[in-house]
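Hi support team,

I submitted a single chain yesterday and got back a structure, but I'm not sure I'm reading the token output correctly. Could someone confirm the output below corresponds to the sequence I sent? I've pasted both exactly as they appear in my results page.

Thanks,
R.
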Amino acid sequence: MPGSAAARPTWWPHFTSTVRSTALTARLGRALGIAFGICFLTGLLSYTQYLSTSWLPKPAVPAWGYRLTQGIHVTTGLASIPLVLIKLWSVYPTTFRWPPFRSVKRVLEIASAVVLIAAVSVQLVTGLLNLLDWYPFGWDFVVVHYALAYVVIGSLLIHIAIKLPDIRYGLGTKLAEGDVLSEVPWDENPDSHSNAGPLPPPVTPGISRRGVLVAAGTGIGLIVITTVGQSIRPLEPLGLLAIRQPSKGWQGVPVSETAAEAGVVEAAQDPAWQLEIVGPNPYVLGLADLDALATAEAHLPVAANKGWSVAADWRGIPLPELVERAGGGPGSRVLVRSLDRTGIKSSQIWGSQLAQALLATHLNGERLALDHGYPLRLIAPNRAELFCTKWLTRIEVLS
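Hi R., thanks for writing in. Yes, this is the structure output for that exact sequence:
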């Protein structure tokens, strides 16, 4: 009879482990679904930093908002890598069910799994490479990462819908019980919740199903603890996997892009440097003017899209003062331009972030280091470090 053990070719792969089970897979899947949901929502918040749309305001309060959400996004993404691998380990025997395409439901299950695995693999691998500042792929990381997030979530929801009976069965079954992913082929009921068929657990297993969950949770917990030190200062000594650490950088703040990488060393150190402010009443400021105007102080975090962040003491010129002098006001949109030749050359700021923005000349009591944006950089609350533009050369009051 089709689907029976006798009909399965002898060369077809089979599995004998009784550790894998529907109950174990369902619990791993639940954890992964939660992780993906957190990554998706915090990723959407992060993407708003890239949008210069007036209908989507960027609040200045809380000042540490981006620091929190992006830190969670990066940490959860890193933790998802081993979780995905464990989940795939728990289900890969189902790939070799015989016959492989027994029903329409089975075909849909395979198709949704293929799309999901492919999208997740690209998303996690390129996300990790982004943290390492390595872009061997030929596309815009931010655009693809954002678009692919919808593919991941969409295919995940479809896969959940198809597998919902198995998920309900697995979550409602004790780990010590439940059906086993093994060599046993499907039974005659194609709609059975069993992944492969029941087998008794071994008398002395190398590791129990509960042990798999404990080991996975412990490993993922270690990844989190050794990563979050890049955004939670007290845990910095444990940050063995942190890409950057707050204390390891000029003036106590990490550097995402150096002046040499941006190609601005000579221009930023030019004694004749001037800041051009363009508006109804245009004017320019020189280096000597900065020192006379830099009297405001603020304690604000700087938070990178790669997950690291640190709070610092800044001193400089309130941006609204310069905007008002140029003929603008609280409702103005302001474009700040950089000497940078390679990275983010300009960014816009408006609304409550503009009201509290600072053009920083000093960091932690010292004149800005060249790699931190000397002679002048933008610092604003709840704003990605990428858009706290360094090496300023021009400010345009747009409205």
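A quick pointer for reading it: Confidence is low (pLDDT under 50) at residues 1-5, 182-199. Let us know if anything else looks off.

Best,
Support desk
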